UniProtKB/TrEMBL annotation:
Chain ranges passing through the membrane: 6-34, 64-86, 98-123, 143-162, 191-210, 222-248, 255-278
Organism listed in the record: Achromobacter veterisilvae
Record's keyword terms, sorted: Amino-acid transport, Cell inner membrane, Cell membrane, Membrane, Transmembrane, Transmembrane helix, Transport
Phylogenetic lineage: Bacteria, Pseudomonadati, Pseudomonadota, Betaproteobacteria, Burkholderiales
Record's GO cellular component terms: plasma membrane
GO biological process entries: D-alanine transmembrane transport; L-alanine transport; L-isoleucine import across plasma membrane
CDD domains referenced in this protein's UniProt entry, alphabetically: TM_PBP1_LivH_like (cd06582)
InterPro entries xrefs: ABC_transp_permease, BCAA_transport_permease
Family designation: Belongs to the binding-protein-dependent transport system permease family. LivHM subfamily.
Pfam family, one: BPD_transp_2
Membrane topology of this protein: Multi-pass membrane protein
Intracellular or extracellular location(s): Cell membrane
PANTHER family, alphabetized: BRANCHED-CHAIN AMINO ACID TRANSPORT SYSTEM PERMEASE PROTEIN LIVH, HIGH-AFFINITY BRANCHED-CHAIN AMINO ACID TRANSPORT SYSTEM PERMEASE PROTEIN LIVH
Main location: membrane
Protein name: Branched-chain amino acid ABC transporter permease
């Protein structure tokens, strides 16, 4: 097999992995701090993509302004469901909150189809010729997507590990009762968490919508791979979520060179199973909380 094809597949997988690392990071933060798997993350992505389409239509096509509006709108949506649903279920079981998140996912998707229908939409982005380096092709749009994703991820990790807010979030993750006894406002921390979850899921939806077609099932179809990537990296580990999603993305794209696109998800899950056979706790080795 040509090394050029392999390198192109690696680059494509890296792009997909990095942009999906944003909602995957949101999933692992909810699991590490709120202690349940948030099944609505995929549909928050979809909402972000549709908000981007609507903002572009209203603003006359401004890409940056529309992206900012869409990510902030998704953050507000996430906060709305936190205050009206998840906050009221904080003392309930994991299963109760999981089912509530599934219900929210269906509600968001149904609302989108009610107002936007089942048709396909595209986000208008500038078309530029690919950069060609001896057969290695890099789309300028992919480069911009990677830069946006890396910038957002760098901000998130700085917030988590270098700021007072991040220290409070990690304290709540370790022991909510002890954090509250130490003077930390746990509910304020949770509100910040859900705002971050919405913003990162929305940004992931915007970037994916720029790269692909916007459909009502856009995020729902990616929910299982994102959960798999979180498990691969180590549930509750932000760095693990990033590594897991990049590995998952690369595995899928490289698999297309051998088995075709219809079976790439099978190969990616095979990689997950092999890794978990040797490291059941995932790559980063932390199953419970954000450290």
């Amino acid at each position: 097999m040509s090394s050029v094809l392999l390198i192109n597949a690696l680059i494509s997988g890296m792009v997909v992995g990095l942009l999906l690392a944003l909602p995957a990071l949101a999933i692992t933060l909810v699991f590490g701090i709120a202690r349940f798997p948030n099944a609505a993350a995929g549909d928050y992505m979809t909402f972000g993509a549709y908000a981007m389409v609507a903002a572009q239509a209203l603003s006359g096509g401004s890409l940056a302004a529309s992206a900012i509006f869409a990510t902030l709108a998704t953050g507000l949506l996430s906060l709305f469901f936190y205050f009206w649903v998840f906050r009221k279920l904080e003392e309930r079981s994991l299963v109760s909150r999981l089912i509530a998140s599934i219900g929210i996912a269906f509600a968001v998707r149904a609302s989108i189809t009610l107002f936007a229908g089942h048709g396909q939409y595209t986000i208008q982005a500038p078309l530029q010729r690919a950069w060609n380096f001896d057969g290695i092709r890099i789309l300028p749009l992919d480069a911009y997507i990677v830069l946006a994703a890396l910038g957002a991820l760098a901000f998130m990790f700085a917030l988590l590990y270098l700021s007072p807010v991040g220290r409070r979030m990690r304290a709540v993750s370790d022991n909510p009762q002890l954090a509250a006894a130490g003077g930390i406002d746990v509910r304020r921390v949770m509100a910040i968490l859900w705002g971050i979850v919405g913003v990162f899921s929305g940004l992931g939806g915007v970037l994916l919508g720029i790269k692909a077609t916007v459909l009502p099932e856009l995020g729902w179809e990616l929910l299982l791979p994102m959960f798999a990537a979180v498990i691969l990296g180590g549930v509750g580990s932000p760095v693990g979520a990033l590594l897991g999603m990049v590995i998952f993305g690369i595995a899928q794209e490289v698999a297309t060179l051998y088995v075709g696109s219809a079976y790439k998800i099978v190969i990616a899950f095979a990689v997950l199973l092999v890794v978990l056979l040797f490291r059941p706790q995932g790559i980063m080795g932390r199953i419970q909380a954000v450290r």
